[in-house]
Amino acid sequence: MTDGGVRAAERLQEDRVLLGRTSTAERVAAILRQRITEGLFEPGTRLSEESIGAALGVSRNTLREAFRLLSHEGLLVHELNRGVFVRRLTADDVVDLYRLRRLIECAAIREGGRPSGETLAALRGAVNDAERAAAERRWEDVGTANMLFHQAIVELAGSSRLDEMMRQVLAELRLSFLAMKNPRAFHEPYLWRNRDILKLVEAGDTPGAERLLADYLSDAERQLVQAHS
Length: 229
What we know:
mainly alpha, Arc Repressor Mutant, subunit A, 2 domains, 3-stranded antiparallel β-sheet, 11 helices
């Protein structure tokens, strides 16, 4: 097993407790989706049924059903006679994802109304975590915190269905982030932009926050499309 495979197995063993006594394909899929979002599995990685099943303590059938669910979401691909792999995104995938992000996130700010204390806390926490990780040069963690910030933006809409949709979008989007050869150069310029969006949300300046977010998403899309072209 490669060093990356050992690291993944160790992290997944930590997740076993989340399954409890009623391990289901949906819960396994949720764990793997989260780990993909965190960048544990890079695009093109072959997922071993043996090592992942042993790490999580689940049956092969349960794991295969989880793989099927994640394949349906566009995170995994099954290659005949080769196995299951984390999907590699194309430039067209990036454009489509950002089209969806603009529809969801900008509308969440525009239509969400006054944010709850819980949502504001999530936004502030994500911004603070990203800035702390950047100061410590943990750029993978900066990317994770950035995703949590945008997940919290969608929570402004107060829709559990949109929240679930955004979790899937962000997991797929993380695959495109991993294509960036210099994660610091990609993530660092967006730290202050997240902070500025947060300030406008706190001040109740919905048009201003939406305008900054739209510009932010357009710039990020352009960078990622170039990386995938």
